[in-house]
Amino acid sequence: MTTAPGIPTAAVSRLVTYLRILEELEREQILNTSSGVLAARAQVSAFQVRKDLAYFGRFGTRGLGYTVRLLKRELTRVLGLNRSWNVVIVGMGRLGQAIANYPGASEYQFSYVGLFDVDPDLIGQLLEVPTRREQHVSIVKRALNEPRRLPIEHIRDLAAFTAQQPVDLGFLAVPPEHAQTAAQSLVEAGVKGILNFAPTLIQPGMTEGEGLQEISDEWRDVMVENVDFLVGMKRLAFYMLNPQLKDQDPEGST
Amino acid sequence: MTTAPGIPTAAVSRLVTYLRILEELEREQILNTSSGVLAARAQVSAFQVRKDLAYFGRFGTRGLGYTVRLLKRELTRVLGLNRSWNVVIVGMGRLGQAIANYPGASEYQFSYVGLFDVDPDLIGQLLEVPTRREQHVSIVKRALNEPRRLPIEHIRDLAAFTAQQPVDLGFLAVPPEHAQTAAQSLVEAGVKGILNFAPTLIQPGMTEGEGLQEISDEWRDVMVENVDFLVGMKRLAFYMLNPQLKDQDPEGST
DNA sequence: GAGTGTGAAGTCATTCACAGCT
DNA sequence: AGCTGTGAATGACTTCACACTC
After folding, report:
1. Of B29, B54, B91, B113, which one's alpha carbon is 20 to 30 angstroms from that of A101?
2. Which residues touch strand D (CB under 7 A)?
3. Which of A31-40, B39-48, B132-141 shows the lowest per-residue confidence on average (mean pLDDT)?
4. B84-116 b/e with 16+ CB inside 10 Å = b?
């Protein structure tokens, strides 16, 4: 099974980068830009920028470039960030807490609605999570910046939780040896998207399984992305020893 | 400037995954394995596994497969993890603390020797960091598992610090708006490898610079890797909306 | 003139098929 | 027979060149 036709995975990651750069430009009061400017900031070629954008539409004006506001709006839409995603975090150790408080996340329509763990010392604790910031504050400034306090609940209550309110995504920040069963809990609770921060791969199927992975029905339409920062550490070690093998970093899809 | 000849960047990331799987196999007391087993666990094809390994040497026995212990040793060597890397963390907020305490890191020869920040509330605090675990405890079990306590120091003392003891790598966990200047501090202190966790790209060159990036001398041989988990979040959002564009996850590097 | 959008060419990575050991 | 190692083929991504628009 090869890459699906159409859009390279790497292009999606780069799109995220372009969107971040557009936000930077907006903060710098720059109204118009070009593939060249975006390319310089994203550390790719201008060809690459134009090609990546072309996968999704025509957003520029020939001879003139792109207007920051418009391109930003379009990329936001393309990436699915113009809606709100309800997120639960499973695993509220230091990493889970770091994720919950990472300021960037809440700005981009990820809204934390539930926190889960199994540690009795953590359960019941209230944790402050940032709320979604309104990106263009209208005339009446709404008090959305106030952080909310969420209680940490036991994973066994996850299914009951999702039965009560919709949950789109689950962020997994448990130790690697518990990642598979925690993922299983998320799937059984009906969560269809998992971002796994544990340094192990989630097997979409059964918790235990030596042979052929029969993909069970509940996993059928579950999307899993892995973010393993040990990989980053080790890649760095490798390229320190082999600098000649390093290219101009095409942003390794994280 | 395209990818350097030879080894695909993605292959390096996959190698890290294979190494982790070999450690899992060792823990499961499995002595021998094959490209097929590694492939199933790494969620790639067996062809891919053999090709990736072939970039670095011949580690198997035809007709028999690989011995776990030997292949693990070789991959450890290839990835540069058979030596110790001295690491400072810059930015000791929640993310920096999560990194410092991430158990996997210290197992793999990353040794935290210094912690830095600018926040007066943090400076002076002692933080427990795990020490490197001996991977094969010899007859005399050495008390290396005891965590050490490191003080958080001010970034302005970084150069003095590196003058006193060798620092190989710097892990950056500061807010994105300070990432570039913090990276600059690392480079000025002589640190040659930077792993950037902030959601922004480090520009190898000047702190400020609109036009052509003149790569200054101090940055000449500095290696930068980026690990941005906001990218992972947003990629997940995109693929939730466009599941048909998702392939069998070739492990996107970060 | 300046800068986008895009088919075509080129480069790189993955898949395949099979030769070669054990 | 089983499984690795590897040139050759396929396919994907990136680079390029240029037509087109403002």
Report:
1. B113
2. A 2-3, 5, 8-11, 44-45, 47-48, 50-51, 61-64, 250; B 1-2, 34-36, 46-47, 50-51, 53-54, 58-66
3. B132-141
4. ebbbbbbbbbbbbbbbbbbebbbbbbbbbbbbb
